[in-house]
Amino acid sequence: MAEITENMIKSKDNLGAPENRIEGFLKVTGKAKYAAEFSVPNVLYGFPVRSTIAAGTMTDIDTAEAEKAEGVVKVFTHKNAMKFNPAPDVESTNKMTMPKSVLNTTAINSFGQYIGFVVAETFEQARYAANLVKATYQETDPKIDFDKYVDTAYKPDNANGAATDTQRGSMEEGMSNASKTLDITYQTPIEVHNPMEPHATIAVFEGDALTVYDATQMLGPSKVAISNTFNIPQEKIRVLAPYIGGGFGSKLRAWDHVMLTIMAAKMLDKPVKTAITRQMMQTNAGLRQLNRQHMRIGTSTDGKLTAMSHEVMTHTAVDEVFVEQAGFITRTMYDTPNQLVTHRVFDTNIQVPTWMRAPGETPGSFALECTMDEMADQLQMDPIAFRIKNEPKTNPLDGKPFSSRSLVQCMQVGADKFGWSKRKQEPRQNTKDNWLVGYGMAAASRAAPYQESSSRVKLSYGDDGLEAVIEMAATDIGTGTYTIIAQTAANCLDIPVDRVAVNIGDSDLPATPGSGGSWGAGSFTSAVDAVCEKAKSALKNKITSDSSALTTADELMKAAKLTEFEMEATEGPSEDSKKYAHFSYGAHFVEVWVDEDLGMVKIPRVLSTSAVGTVLNQKTARSQVVGGIVWGIGQAMTEETTLDKRYGSYVTRTFADYHVPVNLDVGDIEVHFIPEEDEHINRMGVKGIGELGITSVAAAIANAIYNATGKRMRTLPITPAKLVDYEKQPVA
Amino acid sequence: MRPFTYTKTEDTAQATSKLAANENAKYLAGGTNLLDLMKEDVERPDELVDIGLLDLTDIKETSTGVSLGAMAKNTETANHPLVRKNFPMLSLAILAGASGQIRNMATNGGNPNQRTRCAYFFDTAMPCNKREPGTGCGALEGQNHMHAIFGWNENCVAVHPSDMCIALAALDATVTIADGNGKTRTIPFTEYHRLPGDQPERDNNLERGELITSIEIPKNNFAKNSYYVKVRDRSSYAFALISVGAGLELQGKTIKNARIAMGGVAHKPWRAYEAEQFLKGKEATEENFEAAADAEMANAKTLEHNAFKVPLGKQAMVRALNVALSGEKV
User: Fold this and answer.
1) Bond before A717 cis per omega within 30 degrees
2) Is the ipTM of this complex over 0.95?
3) Which DSSP state fits A523?
4) Where does a domain end: A507, A539, A572?
5) Is residue A559 part of a domain?
6) What is the extent of the structural domain holding B44?
7) Which residues of chain B have a Cβ shorter than 8 Å from any chain A Cβ?
8) pLDDT tens column, A18-50
9) pTM for this one?
C-alpha cells in the first residue's frame, strides 16, 4: 500500500527502531488470547435480550417459553435481577468508574436497550432462547429526529471535561472589522467504533474473589466501576485483558454487558461468558454523536484572522449527558483576537455517545479545516500561507507556551514531498479521462495528554545474560504497547529487546492510566524508563567499590553481586510540564479523482506529516497514523449510522450497511515524521500519536474534492448520492 | 439460531422431494445469505437440505449458447473462458458483487434466490411485508436511499440485490427448473423474479420443492460492445445504488439491437425496455444514449431518500452505453 519512509529518528539512542511487534508471532498463530477466547471450566453463556422500541415503558416481559428451551439455565429480567445499591458517596461523574446497574428499570430510553439476559449451556442455545423472550410495551414517541428536537437544546455543564463555552474579544466587532467573512454550517454524522474484536466478558467468582476477562482499554477504572456497581472491594477484583482487538474509545467504559455477565455469575455462582454481537455493537457500546457545526470567520484583505466562531449543536441520551468537545480545536489552532466557541446539546432516545478516536478533534477539525480552506479560496491565498499567517505564538486558549509545535514544518515538508506547488488554486482545472483531479490539504492537531503511571522491573540472569521483565497494568489495544515497552526497557538497561519480557493486561500489576486519549505510549514508557533508571541508581547505591565507570545494568548487577533485583516506580507530569500546552501536530495532503456523473471518488494518494516528539518505533507509529488516515477516509466517504426517525431503530445494523472503507477505497499512504524534541512533556519526549492520524483527514479530502469539482461538500459522508445531488446540499 | 435438521444429498430428485414434503425445509447451497438470515431469525427453516454435492457444476457450450450449472461457483463462472469470451458483461457483473470469499462460496443457482438486503427485512423488530406479510412496509416512509424507483407499491419498496442477475436479465437467459416429481420446466430469466404486487413475500416464481438446475444464455452479438457499471457507497463489497448492464449490437454506427438492464432500482432485475426500444435502429451517439436513458427514467417514482437515483441512473446508463460502444476490453 505504501512505502516505509527512511527518515529514522533516534532521538533517544536506539529507540525508534522499526522493531516487529514482540507479540506478533502469538497473534498470527492464534496463541494470543482475546477476552472471549479464554477457556474456563463449566462456563455458561450469556446473551442479552434487547428492547424493540426506543422510548416508553416495558409493561411486561414473558420468559416462559425461553426458560423451557433446551440448555437454558436462567433468564434474567427486571423481575429477578439483583437489586443494585451502589454506595451513595460514589462519584458518578466519572464515566469510566461510575456504578451502572442493569435490568433495574422498566423505562426504555433507547432502541436495543438490554431488557433481559439469557444464560444457557451454549452460545447458540442462549441466542435462540433470547428470541423467545417476549416483551410488551407502552410506547411513547421517540426523540430521534435531530431537526425536530434541536430547539430543546441546553447548555451542558462541560464538553467532555473541557469548558462548554469560551469567548475572547467580540465576534461582532471582529466580523464587522473583517474585509472577508464566511458563515457556514458543517455536519458530521453519527459513527460507531466497530473495532475488529467485538466486546466480550467472562466473569469467574472463586469465593468472594472475582476475575473478569474483558475486552477493555482500561483495567483500573473497569475494576473501580465493577467495585462501585456490586459493592465488591477493589482488592477482590482482578481484570485481565492481555490482548485487545482494537478499542478506539468503545472499550474505555465497562458497558452493560459487563455488569450483566458479572451479575449472572454472582447470582448463579457459575462462570459466565458473554460475547456481544456486531448488531449490539451498533446499539449498546457507544457512538460518536452527530455534530452540526456553525462556523463564522472574518479576515483582513491580507488574510489575518479578525474573528472566528465555532458553535456546536449535538445530542445526548435522555438518561446521561455526554458532549463531544468538537469546538475545542478552534480554541487552540489559530491566532485570532475575537473568538467564540460554544457547545449545546439536547436529549434524544439514542444511546449515550462516548469517546471515539480523537473525540472533539475528529468532527471539529472537519469544520475548522474546511472553513480555513474556504476562506483561503475567498482570499485567493495558498491555504498553507493562510495558515502560517495565523500561526499563534502561544496557546490562544490559555496563553501558555507550547511544549513543542512543529505545525509549520509539517505543512512545509508535506507540501514539498507531496508536490503541492503543482496544485492550481482554481477548481476544475485538472482532468484525467472521466475523472476530475484535485488536491487538498488540512492541518491537524490533537491534544497530547500525559498521565501518571507506575511500572515494575525484575532483573535476573538467563542463558544469554541479563534479562528483564516489565510488569504494569497497561493495555495493548493493537497499538504496539508491548513492543515500545520492551524497546524502552532494552534501551535503558542496555540489553537486546528480545531479552525483555513484557507482562501487561492485568489489573493486579502496577497501575497505569490505560490506553486512551493517545496518552498510553508516553505514560507507559516514561514509567518504564523511570523504573529502569531507578533500578540502576539503587544498584549503584549497593556497590561499595567505585561505581562511577559502570553504566549498564549488567555491569551494575555484577558489581553489586546480585543475580536478581526488583524495583517499582511511579512517574507523572512534572511541575515544569504543567507550564506548557501540549499538542501533537500534523498535516495531510490528498489527491482525489472525482467522477461527477457517477458521484464516485477515488483517493489514490494521501501524504501525511506528523510531529509527535520522540518516535518510539517507526513501524508501529506509522501504523497508527496509517490506521487514522484509513478511518479518516471512512469518515469522509462512507461511514454513517442512520436511525429510523419513527422507531429509533438502527438502519445501519451490520457491516453490510455501516460501510467501513475497504482496500479499494484506500490508495497509497505515505507517512513522514518530522524530527522533534519535546523537552517538557515527559522524560521520554513522547507526545500522542494514536489520534493525530485521523484528525483533519476528512477536511483534506473535502478540500481536494472542492479543488477537483468546485463543489463544497459540507455534510459527511460524501456519498455518490450527495455528489450527484449536489445542488440540494446545504450551502453557505 | 432455531434448531433444525441437516441432511446432505447427491441426488437432485431426492433433494426436490425433500423440499416438496416439508414446507419449512430450505435448500442450502453456498449459504452466504441463508445462514446470515437464520442467525438474524429472519429465515426459520426446520430442515436444511445441503445440495452442495449435486452434480450440477458444469459450465458448457450447448447448441444454442452456454449453460451454467446451478452448483458452479460464482467465481468459476466469472472467470470461465466461455463466459469471458461470449458474455463479458456477465463476468463483469459477477465480479462487481460481494467479495472474493463470498463469490468462492456462492453458486449460480443460489445467487438468483438471495433475499433483499433491505434493513427492515433483516430487523425482526421492524414491520416488513416480505418477512411477515401484513405488518406493513418499514422502508416506504423510513430510510429508503437504497430502495426502488421502478415497479414498487406500498406493500414493498425493496430492491433485488444481485449483480449477476442484472446481466442475466439483459442477456435474455433462461432458467431451467426441476420439480419434486422428476419434471423440468424452463422460464425466461426476466420472468423468474417478481414485482411485489400483493405478495411481496414472494421474490420469484419458483414453486415449493422446485430447484434451479441450470441457467442457459443464448448466443448473441453483444460480446464486443457490452459493459457493466456499478455505483455503490464504497468502492467494493457493497450493494448497488445503481447498476447498469448494457450491450450493443452494431451495424456500422447503427444500433441493430440494444440490451439494457438495471440493478438497485426494482424488486427484480429491471430490463430497460423503453431505452432499448428507443435505441433500436438509431445511431450510437451520446445524444441518443441520453434520450434513451431519459425515456427509461421518465417512469421512475422516487421515495424520500432516493431521488438521486434518477440522475444517477441516467448517467450510469449513458456511461455503460458509452463504454460498451467504445469496445473497451474487460
Assistant:
1) yes
2) yes
3) H
4) A572
5) yes
6) 5-50
7) 1-3, 39, 41, 117, 119-120, 122-126, 138, 141-143, 145, 229, 231-239, 241, 305-308, 311-312, 315-316, 318-319
8) 999 999 999 999 999 999 999 999 999 999 999
9) 0.97
